Structure of Agrin-like:
Amino acid sequence: MATMNTTAQMEAQQHFTKLTNCRNRKRLKNSLCGYSHVVSSTYTSISLWMCLLTVVFCLVALCPYPARALMLDARGRLISQHPRCRDARLKDATKMADVVVSGKVVKLLQDEAHSTIDHRMMKGEIEVKRVFKGENMVDQMAEIMPGRLRPHKMVMVEGFGDPGICHNSVRERDTKIFLLKPNGNGELKLNSSVVTLTLRNLDYVDAVVHSEYKGDNRQDGS
Ligand SMILES: *[C@@H]1O[C@H](CO)[C@@H](O)[C@H](O)[C@H]1NC(C)=O
């Protein structure tokens, strides 16, 4: 054993010396150097293939989403990367909606009637905080619930999970701005993305609604 070890060590030592020598002298045609050259070029081509395979894999994996919708809101911020949604600017979306409210999602329910295998749709009970637009419609549709401080209006909103809407999901207890249309069944549905509740967004939506009414004589009569 000991001799074998020593022999092996000596061989390794020689091998190393030859390698070092041939590197030092740049004698690449030396058989040992040639061998190491073959090994390293094998590694090189393996890593090249790995690289190529990775690139091909990435291309194939990303293929279903070539045209992601990259939407900007009224201030040019990116608001969506949903693959198939279309979204209007907040200004246009506000004008397009018949009802604009801020409110809190009190409860989310499965919307079996509108769900498909691909898309689970939800509807939500929204506690209305402030009505920017469509007060009459809200009053017609809302249920008045007694509250701790004062009664509040509850409306049912459907369309959460709608793949045609970019920001289409909420969680219970979220407070958001909702841009809505009547759904034809005495309830409301999302017409565009759910809007984050910030002071700027509140002011902005308010300003758009006001400028709209200034132009056409407060059509909803509120
Ligand atoms: C929003 O309302 C407009 C105008 O009625 C309509 O064309 C559009 O399809 C609605 N969007 C959604 C997601 O329902």
